[in-house]
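PROTEIN–LIGAND DATA SHEET

This sheet pairs a single protein chain with one bound small molecule, adenosine-5'-triphosphate, given as SMILES. Inputs appear in the order they were entered. The predicted three-dimensional arrangement of chain and ligand is reported afterwards as a token string under its own label.
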Amino acid sequence: MPVLRFDNVSKRYSGGHDALTEVSFDVAAGEMLFITGHSGAGKSTLLKLIHLSERPSRGAVLFGERNLMKVRGRRVPLHRREVGVVYQNHQLLMDRSIYDNIALPLILRGLRRGDIGKRVRGILDRLGLGARERALPSQLSAGEQQRVGIARAVVGEPRLLVADEPTGNLDPTLSAEIMALFASLPERGTSVIVASHDLGLVKRMKKRVLVLDHGRLADDISPEDLADE
Ligand SMILES: Nc1ncnc2c1ncn2[C@@H]1O[C@H](COP(=O)(O)OP(=O)(O)OP(=O)(O)O)[C@@H](O)[C@H]1O
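PREDICTION REPORTED AS:
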């Protein structure tokens, strides 16, 4: 069963603008893919439908067997536990330490302190931030802050990670590092969807690419086809 299915999804914003039109695709468990397209093509809107910041106007978004149309009220935060989100502006709590920023989702979930410590330190070490856990976000570089945002999104071991232009502000070396980190998540059971308009980066990763054009799915390119270009 796919981890995610878009079934003929359209999204019209209240002003009457069609951001997505009849978009259908599946994401397999353990798959990583990119969504690309021009500015305004609908990439962010598509991701917002997955973590329920927006709702489709027509069609269905299925997360495993869950029809997201039916997820309302108290069930929204429960759904979001299974979907990690990485933004370009990582929205860290600037007055809390790196450790606290990453631990927060686990504290909210009521995990035991010992378990939280193990998980947070594990992810900090993997991201090369082990020595910085007591630092404040303002004491870190932009790339380090972005890694903290990613750590926070993956510390709860979500089934799906969605990232919206996650390397937008970063230099090529850091972008490559972050992409390598994303690419390592599927083997740990997390599927990954990355929206990016950086075509060079998307091509280098050699993953499946969905191309949006004015809200329509214009292409669904397999990694093999990318390699041939
Ligand atoms: N809240 C909103 N209300 C009305 N229109 C919106 C809203 N959010 C986005 N749009 C419009 O929907 C279209 C798709 O926007 P979206 O942000 O999904 O595109 P995008 O591909 O992510 O663009 P970018 O690469 O510039 O971030 C755009 O024309 C945008 O102006």
